[in-house]
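One chain given next:
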Amino acid sequence: MKNFFKKNRNGFIGIGIALIVATIIFMGYELYNAPGASLEDKLVYLLKSYGYIILFVWCIMEGETGLVMAGVMSHTGDMNIFIAILVASLGGFVGDQIYFYIARFNKKLIHKELVNHRRKFALAHLLLKKYGWPVIFMQRYLYGLRTVIPMAIGLTRYSAKMFAIINFLSSLVWASMTIVLAYIFGEEILNIINWAKHHWYFALPLAIVIAGSIYYYFHRVTLIKERR
């Protein structure tokens, strides 16, 4: 089985990417044809109709925003919270497995294409060597290293089976915590969204400042870790 996967790895990766792209194109088509007078109405319709599919693809590519969306929709009754947690966990798991196997079976390509991230790869290897498996479990919360760590581990001889087990448990905890919190505070989140929609001239600059501050803070933390 392992040799079969190695032999056909490029085909599997190509199929996976093609499926993700096809899903995004399909969702764009459905959004364009969705009923509703405004873009907001169309988005709400799309989320209610294809919520679990969107959540799965979203968690493969990114995550937290999709998890909050799932928690709020579970709060309003448009999603089942247990199914949402399972779908989000699988999405996060699949995303990191893709990064891991891309590096595991395309080492020369990774070294060539990611020259600008060599320092982050070096940091990821140091963290793995110093802390072991907890780094895999916590990598979803390490800003700037979230996609680098699975690739960095894929470049080593670390057990693929062990990585998959830890990755799945990490995905499950990550999805459960975020979705449950969004579910509990669903009403407050909806009130904030409603306020932001009617006071966008305050909300937009505030969001930019908050996002910029978070980015600056974690960027500095990452640089400090890299220098040690």
User: Anything to note?
Assistant: Residues 126 and 226 are 9 Å apart (CA to CA).
